[in-house]
## 1
Amino acid sequence: MKLIRNGEFVEDNFTTVGDEDALPEGPAIVSLERWQAERETLRARNAPIGVKLQSGQEPSPIAEDLDHIDVVALEFPVYRNGRAYSYARLLRERYGYKGEVRAVGNVLRDQFQFMIRCGFDALEVADNITPEIWAENVGSFSLFYQPAADGKETVLSLRQRLATRAREKATA
């Protein structure tokens, strides 16, 4: 798998480890269950730590620990399961999480832009994804109807702004 972080193809320094696997010396991503079982030990590590949430696991159980978590990996198990979009937005907007929110699993190219809009800043993508495919898919829309975590102006707010400007010009 390749990792795209903030629009750039980068090397992934994190190792995802199973619940029974030994932790590596460097950055690691563990399951929510392991985080809950070994919380104090993992918080005391001298290496970056991440927590992977399965599609049915909300971020609320780690909300109090987000200052100690470098990566929250949200799983997309199948294309029709979009709970991770909501979880990414919760992490950014409700919990104010500033660390990396990573999409993992079934990350499809036609979803790239929507993932970024919801608060993801890193995506694990298939090996056949190239920078050209990334650019083509992430730039496919320039206007949006719904507000999102990226703060981009919506079509409605654009229309309101343009209407206000037109009224101001008409009365000037």
## 2
Amino acid sequence: MGSRPYRRRLAWGAAALLAAGVAVPAAASASEGGSSDVPALAAGHGAKKAKNVILLIGDGMGDSEITLARDYTVGAAGRLNMDKFPLTGAYTTYSVDKNGKPDYVTDSAASGTGWATGRKTVNGRISKTPGTDKPMTTILELAQKNGLATGSVTTAELTDATPAVLASHASDRSCQGPADMKACPGDTIAKGGPGSIAEQSVNHKVDVLLGGGKARFDQKVTEGRFAGQTVTQQAQQLGYQVVTDDKGLKSAKPGKPVLGLFADGNIPVEWTGKPAAQGGTAPQRCVTNNPERKAGTPSLADQTTKALQLLEAKQRGAGSKKGFFLQVEGASIDKRDHAADPCGQIGETAALDRAVKVARAYAAQHPDTLVVTTADHGHSSQIVPLEAAPPGLSSTLVTDEGQQLKVNYSTNTPGKSQEHTGTEVRIAAQGPQAERVLGVTDQTELFTTIRTALSLR
């Protein structure tokens, strides 16, 4: 079966399917080494070069989280926007210890570092090497170096791990603002380091930064050129337009970078409901207008729409033929999974799915855009039979189909934060180089996919 004629036939078959617009399933590959050959076999399908890349990350959005959101919102036989990509695969997410040995369950800092730099690191570290704690060049830094516009959108604090991996290098993910540097003494400006994640993010002059974390940016800088000023004031001195609500975001003009800070911490979730409990909950419908979410807070889809407008206008105004790199994160899928809050989790998955719709609509008008949707790691929610009596936390929901659905959370002792899992997660794509996501790959290969698509040197 490993003969060259067989491999040629398999390659021809994959290429023919792709040329016809048919997604080749991962199971079509039978690599003897346990790693799919389909990405290699499918190479050559479609355009080679992308002008733009939109990367959408569902933090903690494993297959269970996607299935739960699908079942609740569009029905078991329905399809979310993220289900409609033509090419779908899976990737592994493990991190490493300081010696480079596998750590089978990653956190968001190490996993984000994987796709941001193409290299694995230890849990808790932001785009720095596992053993020597040295900065590693990120995909956003490469994009900037090559003249592309760049953006990062999140529902978490802009200094949280997933956005942080793009535009900062920190020994520990906790070093978010100037007052949070205890775990990163070597990263302080006084020691010749780059400072906190907030300071680095604006110093990098990322064109569009939208999310939460206003309280981090309101901390005072204690060292260096901007000492005595807040990070927000530092951003303004660097030319940023600072906006704090939907009205301000809509009025932001291209030509100057934009810093959007829409909450003191994480942006409040869209949906709420009763958290899972020992012994379960009474059947419930989710509340789809969380009262803790302030009026004027832009949705993730609205932030994505504005980011795309600003990035495209910046390049057009500069007379550049080069495009942009944009990362969009639905962060609180993970955070509500930790809290065993199925309604909050489903609402945030649905919010990311609407951002996926925005990205795919943009790509339909700009086919030289690579769109990728994936997760950083798996998480704890599981759909179980109604008659099950799990030992952990569970909740029963009444879906939009009028059916009951039971969700279980049992990756930690009840009363403690539920944990990530080490499972592989979905990756789906469309556009130039999208075939590279087929089969089973590793998280670090996403860096190579984006770099190849954008021809970054």
